[in-house]
Specification:
Chain lengths: ~90, ~90
DNA sequence: CCTATATTTAGAAAATCTTCTAAATAGGCA
DNA sequence: TGCCTATTTAGAAGATTTTCTAAATATAGG
């Protein structure tokens, strides 16, 4: 939603690791959880933050929920950084 | 220093605003502080986090400390995001 | 319909973060 | 030297975050 939420979401190492996992394709909450030494509830918490930040979206299948990376929001963050860096192009 | 520190540093709105101010050129701690409704001590705290994350560097002059944006670290974050986004180039 | 599996929600504990006030440091200049 | 200005450090209060356990929800399949 807001940049604030997106940057907050990116600030946690677990959540960045989740995003990296999703780089290769969508995974269910359980599959994601199996990569971490944490309870499913904790993974669910992190996923909810990534979801609120629009960094991932979900789609249900059977009783699994698959999560997928939303590259367009990643792109938006890159644009903010590009503007901060400045000097290459993209000035108004 | 580490990505962890850099992303944490970027996760706070005050610190992102400081970086945006520095986009136009270096400013002293006091000049930075004058843009915010916060004590100098708090600004100093935020500057220390930006400094640890290598997002800014400082240089002293008289008894002022000027802060400057470190664009190379901004660049590194962009590269991480580009890799996450994937598909454009930069794969190993 | 009942049970088993996948995931989320609620609530609480512990850790971390943000902010303040007060005090310390450091440098320049009369 | 002694003071003034700029900034940081220390310590504490309050807010937010991360994690857990236990319970709730949802759905598939017998």
């Amino acid at each position: 939603m807001s940049f604030a939420e997106t940057f907050k979401a990116l600030s946690d190492p677990v959540r960045r690791d989740i995003l990296t996992l999703l780089k290769k394709g969508s995974l269910s909450a359980g599959e994601i959880g199996s990569h971490f030494d944490m309870t499913g509830a904790t993974i669910s918490y992190h996923l909810s933050i990534l979801k609120k930040a629009d960094l991932v979206f979900e789609n249900k299948q059977k009783n699994f929920i698959y999560y997928e990376l939303n590259t367009s929001v990643v792109e938006e963050v890159m644009l903010w950084l590009a503007d901060l860096r400045g000097g290459t192009d993209n000035e108004p």
